[in-house]
Amino acid sequence: MPALVNYGGDDDFYSGGSFFTNSTDLGRLCSISSQVDVYCPPRKRARISAPFLFGETEFEQNKQPSIDVLPEECLFEIFKRLPGGKERSSCACVSKHWLMLLTSIRKSEYESSKVVKENNDLVSEDVEMISSDEDDGYLTRCLEGKRATDMRLAAVAVGTSGHGGLGKLSIRGSSSSCGVTNFGLSAIARGCPSLKALSLWNIPRVGDGGLSEIAKECHLLEKLDLCQCLSVSNKGLIAIAENCPNLTSLSIESCPKIGNEGLQAIGKLCPKLQSISIKDCPLVGDHGVSSLLASASSVLSKVKLQGLNITDFSLAVIGHYGKSVTNLMLSGLQNVSEKGFWVMGNAQGLQKLASLMITSCWGVTDVSLEAMGKGCTNLKQMCLRRCCFLSDDGLVAFAKSAGSLECLQLEECNRVTQSGIIGVLSNCGLKSLTLVKCLGIKDMSVGAPLSSPCNSLKSLSVRNCSGFGTASLAMVGKLCPQLQHVDLSGLYGITDAGLLPLLESCEAGLVKVNLSGCLNLTDEVVLALTRLHGGTLELLNLDGCRRITDSSLVAVADNCVFLSDLDVSRCAITDSGAAALSHAEQLNLQVLSFSGCSGVSNKSMPFLKKLGNTLVGLNLQHCNSISSRTVELLVESLWRCDILS
Fold first, then answer.
1. Would you say 473 and 447 are in contact if contact means Cβ atoms under 8 Å apart?
2. Tally of CB atoms within 10 A around 33
3. What are the sequence ranges of the domains in the chain?
4. What is the pTM of this model?
5. How far is the CA of 585 from the CAs of 551, 561, 562, 611, in angstroms?
6. pLDDT at residue number 62
7. Where are the alpha helices (DSSP H) in 440-519?
8. Which end of the chain is less enclosed by CB atoms within 10 A, N or C?
9. 509-645 CATH fold
10. Distance of alpha carbon 96 from alpha carbon 155, whole angstroms
């Protein structure tokens, strides 16, 4: 026993500091002399075959996780065997390295590409569903500006694979420094074979390589929209044509490297193409456009050609092969002459054309317009903008020949006068007429009586035509007694005396009336309008009519039954007008605007609260007499109403 107690071996005895972690156990040593060593069981020596690094922190810093030392080939094989999208997303969150590895794996290379079971997080965490890896592509993603990077696209490619598949992708305004490149688009191609719609706007660093990867992997692609893709050329477009036979819609804008060869391939290899839009592509000419239209003539229904270097030949091809075209838009075709439009009409191929829009084309003259009217027998909508050589004679001849015409819009056609408008209304069954900035229309006295009124016209819009005044309004009132929608915005020259005859002649009852910017109108017009058409009026816009006062709102409250949209911005409205509206029992306003009405103050708060029972939109911008605190209280009270302040 003495030998045991007095043994001083370092291996078997502990000398010095306490090895007890509990203070109770430590107290048991109080009766033992401090000179006596305590016996401990023998400790095993550790065998060290490598240099030992002292210090726990230093040891942990030099210790690497075992999975990181695996070569990428091994990680690739591991990731291929992940059971589903949820597990892939979890692995992608570990590091950028793992994310990049996951995006390098094609969807078809996963072992679970046939049928997998995974939790449907969108429905319930406890419900399992069986989903096919051949996803239908229900998800939509849009990346704009600084958010559009390769890393985000890689995350989208991995994350959407287990939640229905990516169907639509839109990338807009990518930053030039760290924006989207071919790498990001390739990640989408490998991870999202279900992609059906791709839109790339202002992506200068994406070129043929990225688009070729999309074509190689995304065979279900149906819609492609390229805008300001400076690096995409015919090579990328040809790859799309060769690998995406389901393409139905193609839009190309400001792509300077795309030319005729790409369009030829699209026409030959995409038999389902239904819509084509080409704008501001300097390399596109007659050869590409004519080949495309001739090859895809059987199903092509929508054609938009803007700012192209094409000539009369392309329009002749459109007129001959456009048998399925229903919507045609031609803009800025400076090299197309009168002959081109004349041939397009006389070719008799546009029998199904229902909508035609022509903008800034010098070839539109009286002769060519009449030919188009005769050749497009089913034309229902016609829009002519900035056609400076068009006059009254051509417009009337077109109206006579286009027997199916229902809607006509003229914008900045300054050679058209009041006589041309009267001729159009007297010779065709128009339902809608729109005149915008037609400076040639001026008041004049009509000598002969208007014997044939246009009873079919339901909608009249005359905007910013400075010469359209009292006489013109009287003429319209007599000629069009069945008007229901009237838009006279920007006609600052009209007065009460000119508008009252029009209101009195409308027999069907006005439904929508826009008088914004008519500075000289007074309460007398509103009183007559509500008295004559209060039972049918649904929309009334008096924005900027500065002579309109509370009396008009009293008339609205008393006579309007179905009014849902009222705009009295920048009018002489006060709290009394708001009170009158709130006291109307039959009124159910949904949209109300007091913008710029300085006479509306905090006193209108209870009236606005009462109106808020039906309102979904309230505009109080620039109401300087309404405090921010009042607006906050209104926002709290009218929680279902969108308030602008």
1. no
2. 6
3. 2-62, 509-645
4. 0.79
5. 18, 9, 12, 10
6. 55
7. 470-479, 496-505
8. N
9. 3.80.10
10. 10
